[in-house]
Amino acid sequence: MSESDELRNRVQQMRAKAKDLNNEAERATNPEERRRLKEKARRIESESEQVSGMASGDIYPMK
After folding, report:
1. What b/e sequence results for 25-55 when a residue is b if at least 16 CB atoms lie within 10 Å of its CB, and e otherwise?
2. What is the pLDDT of residue 32?
3. What distance lies between CA 17 and its chain's CA centroid?
4. Residue 20 CB: number of other CB atoms within 10 A?
5. For the whole model, what pTM was predicted?
6. What is the DSSP string of the chain?
7. Which residues contact 4 (CB under 8 A, 6 or more apart)?
8. What does the alpha-carbon distance between residue 14 and residue 10 come to, in Å, rounded to a whole number?
9. How distant is the alpha carbon of residue 41 from its chain centre?
10. pLDDT tens across the length of the chain (63 residues)
11. Cα(48)–Cα(12) distance, rounded to whole angstroms?
C-alpha cells in the first residue's frame, strides 16, 4: 500500500470517527457532554482536512 493510500484510509477513518462523535453528541442529554463531543468531532474533522491536503500534494496545511 502506498503512502497516499494510507493517508486516504486515515482520512476516511477520521471522518467516520467525527461522524460517530457528532451522532453521539446529538443523542447526549447532558449539555456539557454534548459540547465536549461536538468539540472533539470538530478537532478531528479539522485534522482530517489537513491530512487530506497532504495526501493531495498540497504543501500548505489548511488553517
Report:
1. beeeeeeeeeeebbebbeebbeebbebbbbb
2. 98
3. 7
4. 13
5. 0.79
6. --HHHHHHHHHHHHHHHHHHHHHHHHH--SHHHHHHHHHHHHHHHHHHHHHHHHHTT--S---
7. 55
8. 6
9. 6
10. 677 788 889 999 999 999 999 999 999 999 999 999 999 999 999 999 988 877 666 555 555
11. 8
Report how far residue 32's alpha carbon sits from residue 34's, in angstroms, rounded to the nearest whole number: 5
Cell 493517508 belongs to 7
Cell numbers describing residue 42: 470538530
Q: By CB neighbour count within 10 A (0-12 exposed, 13-18 middle, 19+ buried), where does 2 fall?
A: exposed
